[in-house]
Write a structure and sequence with these properties.
The protein is of the alpha+beta class. The protein has 2 domains: 32 residues; 154 residues, 3-Layer(aba) Sandwich (Protein Transport Mog1p, Chain A). It has a 7-stranded antiparallel beta sheet with strand order 3-4-5-9-8-7-6, sandwiched between helices. It has a two-stranded antiparallel sheet with strand order 1-2. Strand 4 and strand 5 form a beta hairpin. It is elongated. The chain starts with 13 loop residues before the first helix and ends with a helix.
């Protein structure tokens, strides 16, 4: 007959207890540092400055900066190339304005041009806003359908939501835009909010 000897649970000695505490504290500290580092990388920004137009702003460091005018009087555009299915975009356009032009006139012209430029374009609402520096502006919300024109890259059309902030200054119209697919519009909006707060013109 085989007898199984009962094993007594030995208590941890002083050194073992402190080794356990230190291990737990090191793991928690590493986790906290990882979270802080991730937040720092995600929220990292680059500085953009255009001396000719007197415009500067901060934008997400991982986004692609384009300064070529693609037909919208662009000063610059930044895009998140990792955003799928639509590249989240923030851009700034600068146009000349007439002496008696109002923000509502700019909004109406944008609606007319975009209705032929974008598929199923729809203006949603407008409201007056005040920027961080105290400048009065007009906020315009809209939506449209983005369709892939390349037949080899067929995909389901995407509903895109957009926001324009229209600012009149010194015979110029500043149009600050944010566009994202409707599913992730709110998720990415904090980037646009930070972009607006950093914008100087």
């Amino acid at each position: 007959m085989i007898e199984i000897a009962a094993t007594e649970s030995a208590e941890l000695n002083f050194r073992q207890r402190w080794a356990t505490y230190l291990t737990l504290m090191t793991a928690l500290l590493g986790l906290l540092l990882g979270v802080l580092l991730r937040a720092r990388v995600i929220n990292a920004t680059d500085f953009y400055q255009n001396s000719q137009n007197g415009i500067s702003a901060r934008y997400p460091a991982s986004w692609l900066l384009t300064q070529a005018d693609l037909g919208e009087d662009l000063v610059f555009r930044v895009e998140d190339l990792s955003a799928v299915p639509f590249k989240t975009t923030m851009q700034l356009a600068l146009r000349a304005s007439g002496p008696d032009e109002r923000a509502n006139d700019v909004r109406d012209r944008l609606n007319i041009s975009r209705s032929s430029q974008f598929v199923a374009y729809r203006a949603l609402d407008t409201s007056p806003v005040t920027l961080v520096d105290g400048s009065p502006a007009l906020r315009m919300n809209y939506a449209y359908v983005a369709d892939e024109p390349n037949p080899f890259l067929q995909s389901v059309p995407v509903v895109v939501r957009g926001v324009d902030i229209i600012v009149l200054r010194n015979r110029q119209v500043l149009i600050i835009s944010y566009r994202a697919d409707s599913a992730s519009f709110d998720t990415y909006y904090h980037y646009f909010d930070a972009f607006l707060r950093s914008l100087q013109f």
